[in-house]
Specification:
This protein is mostly helical. The protein has a domain at 4-84 and 188-285. The chain contains eleven helices and two strands. Helix 2 crosses helix 8 and helix 8 (193-226) runs antiparallel to helix 9 (234-248). It is globular, with a radius of gyration of 24 Å.
Length: 286
């Protein structure tokens, strides 16, 4: 996930350009890397109360939800982060289609994991007089359970994403000619002293608390909740966030970090193995 404070600074300040964004990512990554390899992040992890972490997760969820509602209600100019006006009710980019997609996701994923364990057939009755009725009822419930299992196993978010891609080509045929496959060319960036200074003050300083709490500590806590059989270390998480920014930012890569919101979303919609992350990375490179 992109580092939100750095991205917000870039959107709000026209003079906070690519060099400042990259230096902010390098400095933030450097601090996280040092906190990880020295073991200081482990101390921070033990000192932060669980209630603070849960508050961060709640705030992230509400923030994503409110942003989604804003994007649905208003037509957006995403590069400028501005609303262009109310969205029409009908059409390939209308509110009705958005509501249908939202209902589809809620129906498929809204029941929760515990409520999906309904796919085992009930036991037959013990009395001979009720055996036929029990078998008939069991057959009906078995068919219903199989149908529920199929519905609950649908990759709802991926299907909605594919629908969105298809609608893009339907609405704008000329977009086919604008498609360019990657990876993009790579070049080492050069930074001035002013870029380092501004990147530190306006980018790294406000980003560090968010990265420490949401990208390291909250991710480790949430990972333990979602995968209790596995062991997670704030040291390794902090080091990986630091390394990917210490390396990527020199070549123009957007400063990125782990995020509790992204982890929760991927888990909820079925992305629970390293393979899905690899596929996502390959798709982004292409």
């Amino acid at each position: 996930m992109p580092m939100k404070s750095i991205a917000a600074a870039a959107l709000s300040d026209k003079e906070f350009n690519l060099p400042e964004i990259m230096t902010a990512g390098i400095l933030t990554g450097g601090v996280l890397f040092i906190l990880g390899i020295t073991g200081l992040m482990q101390i921070v992890y033990k000192l932060i109360p669980l209630s603070v972490v849960r508050g961060i997760q709640l705030a992230q969820g509400l923030s994503f939800a409110l942003t989604a509602v804003k994007y649905v209600r208003k037509v957006q100019d995403l590069p400028k982060s501005k609303a262009l006006g109310p969205r029409p009710w009908f059409g390939l980019d209308g509110l009705v289609l958005a509501i249908v997609c939202a209902c589809f996701i809620v129906i498929v994923n809204g029941a929760g994991e515990k409520n999906r364990g309904c796919c085992s057939a009930p036991e037959d009755g013990g009395l001979d007089g009720q055996r036929n009725n029990d078998e008939s009822e069991s057959g009906r419930k078995s068919k219903m359970n199989r149908l529920r299992k199929i519905v609950f196993s649908l990759p709802s978010a991926f299907l909605v994403f594919v629908l969105g891609i298809v609608l893009v080509f339907i609405r704008r045929h000329e977009v086919v000619n604008e498609i360019k496959f990657g990876p993009s060319s790579i070049e080492v960036m050069k930074f001035t002293k002013q870029a380092w200074k501004k990147g530190f003050i306006k980018g790294a300083v406000p980003q560090l608390p968010l990265s420490i709490l949401n990208s390291v500590i909250a991710v480790c806590k949430l990972s333990t909740d979602l995968f209790p059989e596995k062991e997670f270390s704030v040291t390794s998480i902090s080091v990986t966030v630091g390394l990917m920014n210490l390396v990527g930012s020199w070549f123009g890569a957007m400063p990125t970090c782990h995020g509790a919101g992204g982890l929760a979303g991927q888990y909820k919609f079925g992305g629970r193995s390293g393979g899905c992350v690899v596929l996502l990375g390959v798709a982004k490179l292409i």
